[in-house]
ABC transporter ATP-binding protein (Sessilibacter corallicola), 362 residues
Amino acid sequence: MSCLKLNNLACGYPQHGTKNSELLVVNQLNLTLNDGEIACLLGPSGCGKTTVLRAIAGFHGLNAGEIWLSDHKLADVNSAVPPERRRIGMVFQDYALFPHLSVKDNVTFGLHKLSKSEQNSICHEMLSLVKLEHLGDRFPHELSGGQQQRVALARALAAKPSLLLLDEPFSNLDVDLRRTLALEVRNILKQQNITAIMVTHDQEEAFAFADVIGVMNDGKLHQWDTPYNLYHQPNSRFVASFIGQGVFLSGRINKQHIETELGHVACDVSSSVSENIVSENTETHVDVLVRPDDIIHDQNSTVTGEVCGKIFAGTSTLYTLKLPSGTELLANFPSHLDYSLGQEIPLSANFQHLISYAKETA
């Protein structure tokens, strides 16, 4: 059953120096989020993802479209349910805890209509959930960043929201803690069957946290899909280049294979080439997406790449390899294969999911 629906959503901001005119930062956005699903809006800075979150929360008006939550309309162009009546919780980037209140008082802040015993019961449940039951009497400044974020999560969940919104909640934490806390928060939300949307620009964080991810750019939703499909089956050139690491390699379709600098790649032309009309009687130039995991060390290959960069990552090493044409590729090799800068490596491509697009022209 769907929990959240956004229909043809558009949001804008007034343009300076122009009367009665707004610049749209979100335009014709549609998505559906099911009960219990955890989603993420991912995209570069300024793409409109935070504006979408603010519109759902009720902090930003609509220029067009509708917002529905569990079959109740929250907003359209002419009307809007106030934020405090939407049953939507929010976790902010800067935690937004009250510094003069204890952890317990922060968690129960929005529960003033309940009796004291009910407040204490919910507070104990929430602090146990985020594993902070022993810190209830402390104040925010006495906690670490990760602990403060857990308190913010406990406060948001205490009101039993129908939907939880998280605005880059881990961006103020160090890298290792961000990944760990993202997984912990995901487990808590799944345990409580909470539907949630997070905004982030960190792909690894999004992949670890979300069941479904929406890739945004220039105010539009390019693809709403699982992390696996975004990586292996991107539906546009932007998604293909934005998700993961990769380089576009020039190729030419010749019957049932694509000729590239790495050799012939057998393919089903109809399924491997997007945004292009392929004629049986003409050769079609394409750009083939080559990801680091597509490149293999192949002693039998006559194609070599010169090592011009390497990043050791423990279990693997990410190499930058320059082909004879000057094109640079990325390749992930097991860390026991150790090559020096300037060394030539024999290589070939093994595409499990071939992704190619019509050749871009200047």
Summary: Confidence is low (pLDDT under 50) at residues 269-281.
